[in-house]
Design a protein that fits this description.
By secondary structure, the chain is of the alpha/beta class. The chain is 41% helix and 18% strand. The chain has 17 helices and 15 strands. Helix 3 links the parallel strand 4 (75-81) and strand 5 (111-119).
């Protein structure tokens, strides 16, 4: 009797220890995954990047590798737009108002005026920063609504006014990041904001990538496709850019407001023909693109101003890989250089690669990390059945569905984590940056009888991960360089 009781007690202790070890392993993977993700995001925060590259001395204002003679300007006119542009403005002011030189040798302060269009909630200024009274961070759209608004247009009109009024003794500094297409908006004559929104929503729902979207946007805008540069009179202009377009094409990031447009109206019409073959979009859209317009195609007279890319997806992926090494993982990293295609396909490939690493590991159980970056697209279900989610949540849910059909053992389920998040902290029209899957998410899905396929078909990944505890919520991050994905195997 005593032997049986002792054996039963020992078995319970072992089961408790096994359960505790599994929980610790899961917690460690989550901790490491988020630590690696945050390291990637931190490496491309707008304030840090700008502060590191801007320097004012007695002879020059240095904007990265671009040097502007100090004697050539009296005032900075700072304008811009994007999810990271407010943070970039903070970094610029910090660099110019907190020089490293001693008070006796510091260069003469420079006057700063201007306006930056930012998402609501991104207009805060750090405590203690001497902020120029004539520089405004203007909230121009609601959180998680990456579309132009009436406020975007009003803010853009003020920016255009500042640029047009800039004189020969002014230097226009333009801060551009992803999300700028929605925040810097002035439709061409003949189309309304609602008509432009109809185009954006239609193209996005059909899976158009950022190149296709911005090609059309440029031909419907007074400010995109070099429109902001054309508004400059005698002033010089320099652009600092945080890239959210893979490959860093300057004429496509935020739809290229300071870059000559290399596309023609025919290119925009070709995109529309692919996604609106029956021409159901407003006729005014087709007229605006087809009819001659001063900004429809770049000319030899377009002024080309210098621009510098400060950070991109590859920088974030590399930084995440360095952090993975510091956490004792053996990392493999890859940043896509062009649009990746469908989010569900990318998710399935990520799941397959993760499982291959898991099963190839053998008895050594070496810690491995697969860190990738890019930007897939999602084809949306009809609005009548559509739920909530974003491309990262859709991607992770597709990875989970694939793994559910891969015959994983209990031991395998507890040895990996997959997460994917937008570096800007926004994944579609939600408050989540993305999502993750691990053993705990899997077990909750089973307990609740949730079918990933049903949620995928309705683009309702947010509800799935909300019910299983797999949402990643970071809030606005002060950057935007596409998406970052981390797969860990322990």
């Amino acid at each position: 009797m005593h032997a049986v009781g002792y054996h039963a007690t020992t078995q319970k202790v072992r089961e408790t220890e096994d359960s505790t070890n599994r929980f610790k392993k899961m917690q460690n993977l989550r901790r490491d995954g988020m630590k690696i993700f945050r390291a990637g995001v931190d490496a491309v925060r707008g304030d840090h990047l700008v502060r590191a590259c801007v320097r004012l001395d007695h002879q020059h204002l240095w904007l990265g590798e671009i040097g502007v003679a100090r004697r050539s300007f009296d005032r900075l006119v700072v304008v811009g737009a994007g999810k990271a542009s407010g943070a970039m403005a903070v970094g610029l002011v910090q660099a110019l108002t907190h020089p490293e030189s001693s008070a006796s040798t510091a260069p003469t302060p420079v006057e700063i005026i201007g306006q930056i269009n930012v998402p609501n909630g991104s207009e805060s200024i750090p405590d203690g920063l001497r902020w120029p009274g004539k520089l405004t961070l203007f909230p121009s759209r609601p959180v998680a609504v990456n579309e132009p608004t009436a406020e975007s247009i009003a803010g853009t009109d003020r920016i255009l006014g500042l640029v047009r009024a800039a004189g020969a003794r002014d230097l226009v500094v333009v801060l551009i990041s992803g999300g700028g297409s929605a925040l810097l908006c002035r439709p061409v004559a003949g189309i309304t904001l609602d008509e432009k929104l109809a185009v954006i929503r239609h193209l996005s729902s059909k899976g158009a990538d950022i190149t296709e979207l911005n090609t059309v946007r440029k031909h419907l805008s007074e400010v995109k496709g070099g429109g902001l540069a054309r508004a400059v009179g005698d002033a010089a202009m320099v652009s600092l850019v945080l890239s959210d377009v893979l490959g860093d094409p300057l004429d496509l990031i935020a739809s290229g407001p300071t870059m000559p447009d290399r596309s023609a109206p025919a290119d925009a019409l070709q995109v529309l023909a692919a996604f609106d073959p029956d021409r159901r979009l407003p006729a005014a859209i087709y007229r605006a693109i087809s009819e001659p317009h001063p900004r429809s195609i770049s000319t030899a007279d377009d002024r080309e101003f210098p621009a510098m890319v400060l950070g991109n997806n590859a920088v974030a992926v590399d930084a995440a890989g360095v952090m993975a090494e510091s956490c004792r993982y053996d990392p493999v990293t890859h940043s896509a250089q062009s649009c990746e295609g469908d989010a569900e396909t990318i998710g399935e490939r990520l799941a397959e690669k993760t499982l291959t690493i898991l099963r190839a590991d053998g008895p050594l159980h070496r810690q491995r990390a697969l860190i990738t970056g890019g930007e897939p697209v999602v084809r949306l279900a009809e609005s009548s059945v559509r739920g909530r989610g974003g491309r990262n949540q859709q991607l992770v849910l597709a990875a989970y569905r694939w793994l559910c059909n891969a015959g994983l053992s209990d031991d395998e389920w507890q040895r990996f984590l997959i997460l994917s998040g937008g570096t800007d902290g926004e994944d579609g029209p939600t408050d989540a940056a993305g999502a993750f899957i691990d053993r705990d998410v899997h077990e909750r899905a089973i307990e609740r009888g949730l079918s990933p396929g049903e949620y995928l078909e309705r683009n309702n990944a947010y509800e799935f991960f909300e019910r299983t505890g797999g949402l990643m919520i970071t809030g606005p991050t002060g950057t935007n360089v596409c998406d970052l994905r981390v797969a860990l195997v322990d």
